[in-house]
Write a structure and sequence with these properties.
5 strands; 5-stranded mixed beta barrel; OB fold (Dihydrolipoamide Acetyltransferase, E2P); about 20% strand; DNA polymerase, domain 1; alpha+beta
Length: about 200
Amino acid sequence: MFSYIKGNLEGKNIDNIIVDVGGIGFKIYMSANSINRIGETGNAVKVYTYMRVMEDDISLYGFCTSEELKMFEQLIGVSGVGAKLALSILSNITPSSFALAIISADTNTLKSLPGIGAKSAQRMILELKDKMKTQDAIATESAPIYNDIVKNDKMRDAIEALQVLGYARKDIDLAVANIDASNMSVEDIIKQGLKYLGM
């Protein structure tokens, strides 16, 4: 319902902020990282939002960047991961590091996150990689022209990581088409791709 909310930051709490928009205070739950980065009380802010509607609750979740929002949406799509756990994960890992952990099946990194055990880490990897395979199949049929972009392992890994974050393959291909990846790490390629995708 809400894509983002712009207003004045009226308050910061342990797990939420209050944003005043035209005299209405919106309580928005956020990760600790986002709360720390959002700015000082009284400043104008823009918060990307996700609205969760349950039988007995309507809540707004907020993010400083669209990448965090996409990662949150991917996380709550994994069975056993609710909104609170997703925010806790976002408080402890960046979207690019999380995506790298998924594509490299790095269960140790995932297990180091609060609330994630060995089984949860494996399930997360399996479910998010399955989504990527579906997206790849669609992209191959609809945009075979872009398949020559994947010229090396680093670029392929970066593309897969961006898919983990929920971006469509055709958008990713356009974003990375002009990146010179020769002297860049996979994480640097991901960050550069995110800049283009966030435009």
